[in-house]
Write a structure and sequence with these properties.
Number of helices: 8
Radius of gyration: 17 Å
Helix content: 25-40%
Shape: globular
Strand order of the largest sheet: 4-5-6-7-9-8
Number of strands: 11
CATH architecture: 4-Layer Sandwich
Bound molecules: fe (ii) ion
Largest sheet: 6 strands, mixed
Structural class: alpha/beta
CATH class: Alpha Beta
Distance between the termini: 25 Å
């Protein structure tokens, strides 16, 4: 039917933050350029990036570099915000700054009978400075899943930065996964509406698990990886029968 590419965590400046002997964003520029040239060869219908575009949200020049590099893609591209783009405890000003730079922080679109829903998982991780924003996200998800069902979507997909859980749906809260209070709401919705897959990043590592009929796919980063998986991108092929996906090392 069609293919798309998931990119996660370009996070310009992360490598230098972990390697005090270096500075700048050359590491990420090189990897993101490679990712974009591989993507242009693959010729997907579009690219979705699941957050953490930059390490320091206040470095406007890093945002400018991200925009310049993405503009060299030969297909449409979509973003979802990550905690580095908004901070771990986002405030209204962080969300507004993100929207000015990259557009809506949550939205959806249809493509060839499939429904793609983008969430701002940062406010599902910590909504203490923006009370109610978490409720807006879960209500948006439910409304959109209903819309997708009404229009008989072949598949519905969800994209956000934070994974729901690592191995066990009941595992403890922590920086790496959404808190149980929000996780359980989302897990209920994705199983009720039979979501085909949830794509996330944040870990700088791959993790592919499932919850009932839904595949939960966490993809490695463009920037410096944490763990054994090298930096890469994920190519996803959607056909009538099934979803195929493969992590391609840069
Ligand atoms: Fe992150």
């Amino acid at each position: 039917m069609f293919k798309f590419v998931q990119i996660s965590d370009p996070q310009l400046g992360f490598y230098a933050s972990r390697h005090p002997e270096t500075e700048g964003v050359e590491y990420e520029i090189e990897n993101l350029s490679k990712a974009i040239s591989i993507t242009n060869e693959i010729k997907p219908d579009f690219v979705i990036t699941t957050g953490d575009l930059v390490q320091d949200r206040l470095e406007q020049k890093h945002v400018d570099i991200i925009k310049e590099l993405y503009a060299t893609l030969n297909c449409p591209y979509y973003f979802t915000p990550g905690n580095s783009d908004l901070t771990n405890t986002p405030e209204k000003i962080d969300i507004e700054r993100y929207r000015e730079r990259f557009g809506a922080d949550y939205y959806s679109f249809f493509h060839k009978d499939c429904h793609f829903i983008m969430l701002n998982s940062c406010v599902l991780s910590d909504w203490s400075k923006v009370p109610g924003e978490n409720v807006i996200q879960t209500q948006f998800l439910e409304n959109q899943l209903q819309v997708g069902k009404k229009f008989n979507s072949k598949y519905q997909f969800v994209f956000m930065h934070h994974p729901l859980f690592g191995t066990d749906p009941n595992e403890d809260d922590g920086h790496m996964v959404l808190p149980i209070s929000q996780r359980s709401l989302i897990l209920n919705l994705i199983s009720k509406f039979d979501v085909k897959a949830v794509f996330t990043g944040h870990w700088h590592a791959n993790n592919v698990i499932s919850y009932k009929n839904t595949e939960l796919i966490t993809s490695g980063p463009i920037t410096f990886p944490i763990g054994e998986d090298p930096s890469g991108i994920r190519i996803v092929e959607v056909d009538e029968e099934k979803l195929y996906h493969q992590y391609i090392i840069l």
